[in-house]
Amino acid sequence: MSNRKPSWYGIVKENDADKGMFTEKMKQIVIERVEHNRYKKMNHAFIKVLFPVAAAGLMLSILIVPLTNSWPAIFPLKQGGDSNGSMSPPGASGNDVTLNYEPAADVKIIPETDKAIRRDRLERIPLSSVTIKEVVASEGMGKYGKYVEYRKEGDPNPFFGYDSTNFLSSVIEGVYEIGYGALSDVKFRKSDAFGFSNVRLDGKCGPERRCTYWISQENNNIIANYQMDAATIYEEDLDGDGVTEAVVLTHDQDVYIYKNIAGVIKSIDVQAALQATFRDTVTYDPVQRTFQISSTLESRKYRYAAGMDKLELLERRELTYKGTM
Length: 325
Hints:
Layout (H helix, E strand, L loop, with lengths): L8 H6 L9 H41 L32 E2 L19 E8 L4 E8 L1 H4 L3 E7 L5 E6 L11 E6 L3 E7 L8 E8 L2 E10 L2 E7 L4 E5 L8 E5 L5 E7 L2 E6 H4 L7 E5 L4 E5 L3 E7 L5 E9 L7
Antiparallel strand pairs: 1-18, 2-6, 2-10, 3-4, 4-5, 5-6, 7-8, 8-9, 9-10, 11-12, 12-13, 13-14, 15-16, 16-17, 17-18
């Protein structure tokens, strides 16, 4: 038999004022002391088991789990970095980026995310069949034509069109219908975009949205190439081939390039071409004609290659991360 005394034995010895009698007070003291000792033993055992497990889990997560681009792992998985340990760039890997232009999708209803340019041949309408509501002439006594808003008999919807009078003299003068709706804050600009545009007409066509129409004359027809979300437009000959491209910033400041390829205006989403994530920012500098992608770790600057549909890397700068843990 074990000679070890039970937990309450010493407590009874310490409290012999009542000549060894086990009073109610002593009973309560014994119960409290026993429970306290039992809790301490269990707690120590739990800590001995938990601490090694937690430490092992922490080391495992540090060693093999790559974190966000703001906090790389100590031993990151291979992400395209070079042998000297330099960090992978934001967006596309490598130096230059090939641009794969795409034509507008053939859809009946244009989705909000579709930023392509589409083409329509405008029909001339007799003024005797409509009621003119508003006429906006371009600066210089109708130098580039006029914007006309009108109503049709029996139709409550407004319509708008382009009046080519005194501008495109080789076609039959008159109002050419663009479509239903109306524009506000209308602006005209001379344009040679895509190698065939004559004038650019744009205006507000909805909340925080501007619609743009590149008007041209082709074989005695009036043609409109239009884009439905062009907050800012820069017309530049990016590749130096003598034909002007259009760089467009949408309301959300996304960057698109539009280019005439074999007579079809195709587009490229620059964010997608650079593989930008939601953490990255893509901008266009119209003075330097450069495109830049920036993340929390670095920025890369590109310029359109001469005679090629490609962005050439000009500069790469590592940035100092100032975030908090």
